[in-house]
Amino acid sequence: MKALEKVLLRPLILTEKGNRMREGMNKYLFEVAPEASKIEIRLAVEKLFDVKVRSVRTLVVRGKPARLGRKRVQRPAWKKAIVTLAEGSKIEYFESV
Q1: Which residues are within 8 A (CB) of 50 and not within 5 positions of it... i.e. 6 or more apart?
Q2: What is the mean predicted confidence (pLDDT) over 72-81?
Q3: Distance between CA atoms of residues 95 and 93, nearest Å
Q4: What is the pLDDT of residues 4-26, one digit of tens each?
Q5: Cα(16)–Cα(35) distance, rounded to whole angstroms?
């Protein structure tokens, strides 16, 4: 099992879809380590933010092709987690941003 701080890489707070999910459905988005499991993500969110997690869904966002001068490169793939909190729980970090 990884250290809890290394499972969650960063919160995704600047997306419109993420804001709608947070306000309407009590779901929060995080970029997580590619090898992190759903159980590790659940434990990390519960310990770091002191909330009760109802479910965790994960997906791999594939890297897009990009151009760097005349060269074509591939952006790296990354893993996203959608964390649904129990009724009445919320993460204060997202409310202040």
Answers
A1: none
A2: 96
A3: 6
A4: 789 999 988 877 888 888 888 99
A5: 27
Q: Residue 70 in contact with residue 81, Cβ under 8 Å?
A: no
95 to 29, 49, 67: CA distances (angstroms)? 13, 13, 36
Instruction: Give the integer Cα–Cα distance in Å for 79 and 66.
Output: 19
Rounded CA-CA distance 38/58 in Å is 7
Question: How many residues would you count in the chain?
Answer: 97
Structure confidence by residue, pLDDT tens digits, 26-63: 999 999 999 999 999 999 999 999 999 999 999 999 99
pLDDT at position 89, please? 85
Which domains does the chain carry?
4-87 (3.30.70.330)
DSSP H stretches of helix in the chain: 4-7, 16-25, 38-49, 92-96
